[in-house]
């Protein structure tokens, strides 16, 4: 019998937006850099992007696919508190679609050894787990961590939650490996004083071991669970007393006789201070131990929401704008485990900017995306304080932060096409020639790289394949001249407003008309992909929107699909 596949299904699952791959427009007046280099590890090419986060992720796809080491997102938790007049199932379905659309692009952006970390509460955590497994693959799920976000439960309920989930996925799992590629690359947590205290210098008959402190490991197994092995029941000789020593009754040695003799010859068995122990212990030296510690699945030592709020108040001198900002200590642990200095960290729900601030202090490169006006009123001022070394809260003392580096500010370009007063699609009037060339290059999968030597080289896909973008109407003579200049060894995609003549005459040219070439490619003029209340359909049916089902024939067939394009923008949340 074939193995059934469980899947999550919801109203509108099959509706997918046709995203426009927009260009990013830099604004030097909003960018900020330290006045001088503080350390050799300073980075100045970090990016703060203002705009819809789904479109911004799409805008990053061409350049950053397979380059991001760590993604942290803190999306809206979809608690429903603002949607009392709407059917919760419809709201829930839209939330799932919008999260799914983002996760799919995020997965493409991640490196093969990259990982995604998502904070979420009980309202959607378990649906998000199944959804994430569909996008990344169940075998790429790493952990469901519990982060303690408050020091006590709320008093208005019988059982009060004090934690959030942190769901973690890897980009890939190589072959039949027990660990994902991300886990293989994870960093251990720093060793604690308590862990190091287990290693001591012990007196021995011939003096302390010169190899340094060690901790004692039992050399016997007690036989429970079938661990007793008759061949491991043998005698060894105490080198100090000359007596034969056997395992205690009901136990056996953990190692073969050859291994025990090797340990004995290397002085790795501890026979007690006077050398008279009836059972030796194995020495595990401190220098042999892992240089770090495995992270637990419960994090009660990574700061609380209230600590983050106090940090925000200290930075801005006002009551925190964000109700539940994430503390820098939480991001510090995630970024430490999931990346190394110089790696690229991405947060597409920037919120108060914690991810970028922490990544910056830790010597990582970063990209943040945010649409809300707090991008200008809170994130930029916060980052300026970080760069100037004025932010000494959060993890600054722990990482000895003194300032430095910088970031570049970008905003999403408007849609390439717009309708004129007669309803016809035309090139957006806000686009100049340079913007148009860059946008068409991205749309066609070319790298925008204008040539100083050839006017017709606006971008390239290979060393011999180029693109030319113009709003002119090309005559047969102009096309012939282009073909002659390109030559037989190169090819050129020509994007123009119109042309005359038979373009099949030129084997090295491919000619397309703007905007006709692009009309069916994307949802032009669509700027809103967030969860806006006014765009939600009113409740029309009590039927559940989400089921977990197998096989497909048993899946609930929704009578009315929700157009994903109707959902609008999905920004907000964030730490």
TrEMBL record:
<keyword id="KW-0949">S-adenosyl-L-methionine</keyword>
<dbReference type="InterPro" id="IPR002941">
    <property type="entry name" value="DNA_methylase_N4/N6"/>
</dbReference>
<dbReference type="InterPro" id="IPR002295">
    <property type="entry name" value="N4/N6-MTase_EcoPI_Mod-like"/>
</dbReference>
<comment type="similarity">
    <text>Belongs to the N(4)/N(6)-methyltransferase family.</text>
</comment>
<dbReference type="Pfam" id="PF01555">
    <property type="entry name" value="N6_N4_Mtase"/>
</dbReference>
<keyword id="KW-0489">Methyltransferase</keyword>
<dbReference type="InterPro" id="IPR002052">
    <property type="entry name" value="DNA_methylase_N6_adenine_CS"/>
</dbReference>
<feature type="domain" description="DNA methylase N-4/N-6">
    <location>
        <begin position="68"/>
        <end position="377"/>
    </location>
</feature>
<protein>
    <recommendedName>
        <fullName>site-specific DNA-methyltransferase (adenine-specific)</fullName>
        <ecNumber>2.1.1.72</ecNumber>
    </recommendedName>
</protein>
<keyword id="KW-0808">Transferase</keyword>
<dbReference type="InterPro" id="IPR029063">
    <property type="entry name" value="SAM-dependent_MTases_sf"/>
</dbReference>
């Amino acid at each position: 019998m074939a193995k059934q596949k469980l899947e999550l299904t919801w109203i509108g699952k099959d509706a997918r937006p046709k995203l426009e791959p927009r260009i990013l427009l830099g604004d030097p007046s909003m960018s900020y850099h330290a006045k001088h280099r503080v350390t050799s590890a300073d980075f100045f090419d970090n990016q703060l992007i203002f705009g819809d986060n789904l479109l911004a992720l799409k805008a990053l796809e061409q350049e950053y696919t397979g380059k991001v080491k760590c993604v942290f997102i803190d999306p809206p938790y979809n608690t429903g508190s603002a949607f009392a007049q709407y059917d919760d199932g419809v709201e829930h379905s839209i939330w799932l679609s919008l999260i799914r659309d983002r996760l799919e692009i995020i997965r493409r952006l991640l490196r093969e050894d990259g990982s995604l970390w998502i904070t979420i509460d009980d309202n959607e955590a378990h649906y998000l787990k199944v959804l994430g497994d569909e996008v990344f693959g169940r075998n790429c799920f790493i952990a469901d961590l519990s982060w303690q976000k408050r020091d006590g439960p709320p008093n208005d309920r019988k059982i009060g939650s004090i934690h959030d989930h942190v769901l973690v996925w890897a980009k890939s799992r190589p072959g039949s490996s027990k660990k994902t590629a991300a886990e293989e690359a994870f960093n251990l947590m720093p060793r604690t004083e308590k862990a190091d205290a287990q290693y001591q210098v012990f007196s021995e008959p011939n003096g302390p071991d010169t190899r340094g402190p060690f901790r004692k490991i039992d050399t016997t197994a007690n036989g429970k669970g079938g661990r007793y092995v008759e061949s491991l029941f043998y005698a060894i000789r105490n080198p100090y007393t000359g007596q034969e020593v056997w395992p205690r009754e009901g136990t056996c040695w953990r190692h073969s006789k050859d291994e025990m003799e090797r340990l004995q010859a290397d002085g790795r068995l501890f026979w007690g201070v006077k050398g008279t122990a009836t059972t030796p212990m194995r020495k595990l030296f401190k220098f042999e131990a892992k240089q770090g510690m495995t992270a637990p699945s419960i994090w009660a030592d990574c700061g609380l929401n209230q600590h983050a709020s106090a940090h925000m108040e200290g930075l801005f001198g006002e009551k925190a704008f964000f109700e539940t900002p994430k503390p820098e200590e939480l991001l510090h642990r995630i970024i430490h485990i999931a990346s190394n200095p110089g790696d690229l960290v991405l947060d597409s729900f920037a919120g108060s900017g914690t991810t970028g601030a922490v990544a910056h202090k830790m010597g990582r490169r970063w990209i943040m995306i945010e649409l809300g006006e707090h991008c200008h009123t809170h994130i930029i001022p916060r980052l300026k304080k970080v760069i100037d070394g004025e932010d000494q809260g959060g993890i600054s003392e722990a990482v000895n932060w003194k300032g430095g580096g910088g970031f570049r500010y970008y905003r999403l370009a408007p849609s390439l096409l717009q309708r004129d007063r007669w309803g016809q699609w035309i090139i957006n009037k806000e686009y100049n020639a340079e913007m148009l060339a860059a946008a068409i290059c991205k749309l066609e999968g070319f790298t925008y790289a204008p040539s100083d030597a050839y006017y017709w080289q606006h971008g390239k896909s290979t060393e011999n394949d180029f693109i030319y973008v113009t709003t002119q109407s090309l005559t047969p003579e102009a096309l012939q001249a282009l073909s002659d200049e390109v030559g037989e060894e190169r090819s050129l995609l020509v994007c123009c407003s119109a042309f005359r003549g038979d373009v099949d005459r030129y084997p090295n040219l491919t000619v397309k008309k703007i905007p006709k070439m692009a009309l069916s490619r994307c949802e032009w003029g669509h700027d809103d992909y967030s969860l806006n209340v006014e765009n939600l359909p009113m409740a029309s049916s009590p039927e559940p929107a989400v089921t977990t089902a197998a096989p497909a024939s048993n899946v609930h067939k929704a009578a009315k699909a929700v157009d994903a394009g109707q959902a609008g923008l999905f920004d907000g949340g964030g730490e």
